[in-house]
Amino acid sequence: MFKRVLVLAPHTDDGEFGCGGSMAYFIEKGRDIYYVAFSIAEKSVPQGLPKDILRTEVIEATKRLGIPRENLIIFNHEVRKLNYVRQDILEALIKIKKDIMPDLVLLPSQNDLHQDHYVVSSEGMRAFKQASILGYEIPWNNITFHTQAFIKLEKQHVEKKIDALKAYKSQSERSYATEDFIWSLVKTRGLQIGSQYAETFEVIRWVI
What we know:
The chain is of the alpha/beta class. Helix content is 39%, strand content 21%. The protein has a single domain (4-205), classed as LmbE-like (Rossmann fold). The chain has helices at residues 14-28, 53-65, 86-100, 115-127, 155-166, 179-192; strands spanning 4-11, 32-39, 72-74, 104-108, 132-136, 149-153, 197-205. It has a seven-stranded mixed sheet with strand order 3-2-1-4-5-7-6, with helices on both faces. The termini are close together.
């Protein structure tokens, strides 16, 4: 159904956490995946590591998923301050829309509490209002989340997601960056639809 899928990640690794298994699924089906990261979060990098390490890590992570390097776009806006440059983000997204013309856009939920995530979600909706849009799940940022759409995954898709997230060695100490958590979430979402594994999304716009 979808030929070109665009993933919008406020920060590097958000896309992998929210829909890494789905990206692996679409790539296996021969779809074109494009990934846009808006911040490499230099001010949040653990002390002693290179400030641009997340740029290196997102390149490696998307490579592991099978996304061509030319399909990866990286911006370096300041973390937690995307609201200061939201017009720049919107204009960049409009240009990306003209260049890519995606059929499906995966972006953060409108119920995501992180200020950067909310900006990317809002501007993404404005830029791609004529495409199908799904909001991905970031459980630690969501007060509410409507499980309205699911993508069934197989074991190899989840393994690809985990392998991609392992590229983010600078983030390995995060409490949610564990294999146990990732497996438990995809199993829970799979159980909801009678599948072994799944990722879930909020339906923002659906075009058939």
